[in-house]
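Pipeline run #58 for the internal structure catalog. This entry was flagged by the ingest filter as a single-chain record with no existing model, so it goes straight to prediction. Upstream metadata was stripped on purpose; only the residue string is passed forward. Reviewer on rotation: M.T. Logging verbosity set to normal.
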Amino acid sequence: MDWVTRAKMNRKVIHRDEEIGLGELTKRVSSNEYERIEEIEIEGDEERYQYAHALDLPMSNLGVVRLVLLKKNINDDGAMVLVSNRLDWGIRKIIATYRQRWKIETFYRDGKQHIGLGEYQMRSLQGIVKHLFLVFVSIPY
């Protein structure tokens, strides 16, 4: 299964034979190692990132992963870190995959809060499919 997620800054990686947290790693990566990318918005908020850098490093309990460090400004000390198990994906593919997460999460929230998907209790696949069809047909456009 392919996955991309945002990493917590206290997660540990092995960088140059030393175990360090991601917060420290983002400070150690030189500004000239980042590449300029088109300005992107992450997670539906107003934060826009313009610089990215990818590293493949071992992370505790996950093995070797691809890290994508994102900065708003090239001179920022810290960075947001995305993590993926796909070492062959480029920076833009990892960012695009992560950005899809926001649409999925808002769909789940809306489905549970507004159209009743959080309240039904079905046990058979056929019953679940029929319920979903009825719910989606009843949504006003």
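catalog note: The first strand starts at residue 4 and ends at 6.
catalog note: The longest helix spans residues 91-113.
status: ready for reviewer M.T.
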